[in-house]
Amino acid sequence: MGFEPQAAFREAAIAWSRADPARVIFLCRAILERVPDFPDALNLLGVALHSSGDREAALGTLQRAAAIVHRPDILNNLGLALRSLKNTDEALDAFLAAVAVDENFAEAQANIGRLLCETGNQAGALKHLLRAVAVKPDLQRPHSDLGAVYMKLNRLELATRHYEESLILGLSRWQPTGAFLDSRATEPEPDPVNEAAAASRLARFRAGLIAMKRVLDDAGITFFLGDGTALGCTREKAFISYDKDVDLGIDAAVPRSRVLQALDESSEFWIDPERESRNGEVLICGSYRNLVAIDLFFYHYVDGYVWHGIRHGNEETRWRQTPFGLAPVDFIGENYLIPADTDRYLTELYDNWRLPDPDYSPYVTGDIVGGLPLMAKCYALRDLQMALGAGKPAKAAAIARRLIDRLHLYDPSPRLAAALAAFLARSR
Hints:
By secondary structure, this protein is α+β, with helices and mostly antiparallel strands. The protein is 56% helix and 13% strand. It has 18 helices and nine strands. Strand 8 (326-331) and strand 9 form a beta hairpin. Helix 5 (72-84) packs antiparallel against helix 6 and helix 7 runs antiparallel to helix 8 (122-135). The relative contact order is 0.07.
């Protein structure tokens, strides 16, 4: 019996469903040797090549398929291939072409929304993402992206609702059907960790902290090492390798305007206007020469406890702690202040702080005023969603365990509670 392209394509589709891209590539190339203009084979080959990491070849293959037939699935895959190669404008054109053929093609609507969100067009993103979930409510990614858009628009209740829906779908191991490129594969891969990069990072963090110390000391403003910087100082005698910024504390009795004036008079610091306008009197968010982020938290003493926190729109998350004094400490060759009862301070924030925990999420750890206010809930769901999307099941499980311990603090979606429990059962 001779070679049958249709039969071979059915075999290739089965191989794709079994996550065997090498077999798919072999079969599709055999088909195309005999039928060069077979659009389904070109489409599936492009997807398999992309999955295997050969993105340039995937792009060329999908361009051939799209030139033969303007089908929304092919155009959507072409857009994802272009996006993976940072051709953002061309990717958007391909996604728009897909919905021009079929406005109800939810995957392309979702990809348009995601691109617009990333470029700051929240209103446009909202329109396309809502269209995607209206057509296909069980698509996971657009719910997650809607969560991100609504967070940027300070609509945390709606953000929470869509993060919950995304997690219910994701935690259930839902997968989209059909030969569509996985958009997660288009994310930039992290740079490999090496000693030179670690040393450079340490130097930047140290320089930023020393510069901030000089500015605040000259202004006569007392500050101390707090949060992750206090943790690194105490446990590792260095900055934590996975920390993202320098954390400092200031008594809220110090006028905020005085701190801002001191920073404004220095040419070395830049204040983040978006986070600054959002956080008000609870936090000053800046960076040292755009090299390292530095957060200055104002600690408020009220009713027998002290709290510090962050704000998003009209919502706040406040971490409550026992009042503390300050004590001197040597940190990376300089003298600083740190909460005097460091063990209690860190325990109240991190629980078992002596063990490194890169899976830590602050929004489900520590004594949060109100238990689990809307903002903390929204951010915790976001962190869990990000861990799942990044392919980090251990981190997702750690956040899920802490989150489920606090579900009694608000009226949870029964579907979310069930999905969390089932996910944790599978993770054991």
